[in-house]
Amino acid sequence: MQTWLDDVIASGRIPGVSLATLRAGEPAFAYAGGWRGAHDAARIDTRTVFEAASLTKPLVAYLALQLADENRLDLHAPLRDIGGDYLPGDARSHAITAWHVLTHTSGLPNIVREAAPLKTYFAPGERFSYGSSAFAWLQRALEAVSGRTLEALALERIFTPLAMRDSSLIWQARFEANYAQGHEWDGEPVAKRRLETAQASWSLVTTAQDYLRFVRAVLRGEGLSRDSHARWFTPAVPTRQGNDAEDLAGANPLDPHVAWGLGWGLEPAQQCCFHWGNCPGFRAFVMGNRATQDAVVWFANSARGLRLVHEVLPHALAGDHPAVRWLRIGEL
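Request: output the structure for the sequence above.
Response:
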């Protein structure tokens, strides 16, 4: 796989990649290659930080389940009763719970835009439609019940215990010396974002090595009760096809092979969990197998980064993976 990744980078299709795998629960393979970006011609190494985009969400789910285990967060209580109103005048939103957010059944849109303003598009719990915007409300609830900022929660409960020294939900001055810059489809660099406030749906900055430490803990069931860990990976709702998995109108068919749990996409027949990340100039992907304890995670500073899946995934996790078809990932 290393030679193939070197060839992809040499071709100029993707500037840089950071990748790491588990085999039977132990670190097995690591790759860091390519260039950081127009801002810095240095080579990417294992401590070069990338924007993880929606790979942030499983970490937030982990925090929510921990707080639920401690009886500080009721996953089925209306978020309005915990963190205050989020959508004044939208009566249906009063029923949205943490469970709805984590299973993407809140009825809220993925990204707020002119064609999809912030409102409920169907009754919470009715069906699946990937909705990143709901995570801001969940963040408010987590911070309310804990009395801590989301960054402080992540630092205390994930980053420090798992020795994720190059990870944060906000920009850190220490990242300035070694970070990757995103690139769009045509290779144009994307302006660097330096967030001062955590965003529960997308603001994680990390490395493949760090994120693999989190995945290893996830697969082992560390930090959660046995019941919560089981519920995390129990299919809660069947998914639907649609651009970016969003289906506000309910027009797309159900996918019988891909489900959603409490913060993870699931391939039930394969016993795999997965998530993908997509933000300007960056793509990321993670998949783990609970039975074999194998896993892979990678970050690419290119809009083409998900397309590595067709070569990388067969090396890391053997077998058929319907998530790839569900995500409609094109060829490199």
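The chain has a mean pLDDT of 96.
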